[in-house]
Amino acid sequence: MAIAYRVLPPLSSYSFRRSKVCQHMESCLLSKDLDCFFVSIQKHSFDVKLSYLKPVRTLSLRCASRTTFTSVGPLGIDKDSALNNIQRSKTSFDGSKAADGEDGFERELQELFDEVKMMISMGNKSDAADLLRANYEAVKERVNAGARGMEEAALIDVIALGYMALGDLKLVGSLLGMFSEVVNSLKDDEQLLDSVLVHMGSMYSTLGKFEKSVTIYHRAIDIMEKKYGRESVFLVTPFLGMAKALGSMGKAAKAIELYHRTITILESGRGAQSEDLVIPLFGLGNLLLQEGKAKDAETPFLRILNIYTKVYGECDGRVGMAMCSLAHAQCAMGKADEAIRLYRNALQLVKDSNYMAMDDSTMEKIRIDLAELLHVVGRGKEGRELLEECLLITEKSRGKEHPSSVTHLINLATSHLRSKNYAEAEHLLRTSLQIMAKTVGTDDQSITFPMLHLAVALYHLRRDEEAEQIALEALRIREKAFGKDSLPVAEALDCLVSIQNRLIKDDGVLLEQLKRVLRIQERELGNEREEVLETLKKIAFYLDKLGRKDEKSSLQKRLSMLRMKFKQRIRY
């Protein structure tokens, strides 16, 4: 079982978090896991349903027997998919019911989709894959024979969504080639084309092909605006998908404009206090935070809090979730005390309402973020108590040596390092190493993170030789795993140099190691990063010790320019 850990910061700056404070809410709306504070948006009334509006001719589908299954479990499909967003069905948006006598083809598509969902929810992934493969072979044969109709496009759509549910994104990517070929041959007046295009845009976005995603969404939106008008609620799903793709491409201004347009449409159709507004407000708030506009982000998060309070009451867990997103905005604005108050109230509210289990990953992330914030403002003891709570909850629910406890052990150890409790940090880190050695082995790159933290603790305990050996072993593992000129290697070298400073008399050796660190940082990070500035300071120190004044003089000019740039960034 592989365990992924974050990259260790330089020796001089400790980090105990799994994600940077005030940054884990910055991921775009409806990302792979959604955001930890808003699992609640899945509880809206939007049905997971293939929303094809008009009937088409029947295409024979290969479906498994339905007599085995009695209920439909949740589909494990990517949350970015249009199927898990606001659905463009008549029932969802305008309150009217779909036409009676649902067409046989559409019904068969839905049955195939439900069949795949059921198999996946029951753990029968191989059966689901077989069913999808059979239908894929059937439609591939028709396409190769020259068929390029709406039936083929709709079936490929369902098959691709099924493979997304299975997590087979590689196969989805290959399917999209045939999908595009069929869709590009269709005219815009095809009855189901807009729905298929929305799904297709979502798939491209999931695969990280955002430009193609935006192009597909554009076509879907053009078709829908002609059919339903520019203010139709049917536009909400493609607007949200396109806004997410634009945000991922760095085109924030256009994405923000789309979010605002979506909000306006929903306000007009559902009212200013409708729960349906939560999703676009959440996406808008996250994007504004990502763009460094914390003050602007506060407004959508406040609206979400007010909506949930009105709809569910002050004591509902969803209100607690909304408090957390607002706390994130407050934190980004520098209002640490208000953010801490909101986080604490949110944790208590979620706990009292039994909205989610205490060992839920969402609760864990909230506690870790709050713990980090407390450390940042100098309230390390309170932060450490939260980290200890995370560890105790994990050990109680999963066992004392479960791999998931390693993150909490390292976080807690780093907190003790910051408080100069080096002996306790050593104990915790050795415990984490023992667990990881059993889980991933002693040569896996992930084990180097607690190793380097342990080297730091031993260094402060004046056990330099032991610290050096551990740092050297971590460096060896990283060089093998990432390559000798990789950023993880530079970080291990930086740590090693700090330790060897008390062991090696030859300052020239240490200087060469630091120059190697600098070369890697400049190539991987650029010439104007804070990490580069810190390494340049260390190089200047050793040049001074070695009496190499000419080299130091030229380096000092670069240092002065970098310091000036960083001061200007802080000012603005």
From TrEMBL:
Extent of the TPR repeats: 194-227
Keywords, sorted A to Z: Repeat, TPR repeat, Transferase
Superkingdom, taxonomy of origin: Eukaryota
Any GO CC annotation of this UniProt entry: chloroplast
Molecular-function annotations in GO: transferase activity
One GO biological process term: chloroplast organization
Domain MalT-like TPR region: 196-477
Pfam families attached to this UniProt entry: TPR_MalT
UniProt xrefs under PROSITE patterns: TPR
Annotated PANTHER family: NEPHROCYSTIN-3, TETRATRICOPEPTIDE REPEAT PROTEIN (AFU_ORTHOLOGUE AFUA_6G03870)
The protein's name: N-terminal acetyltransferase A, auxiliary subunit
Taxonomic source organism: Trema orientale (Charcoal tree)
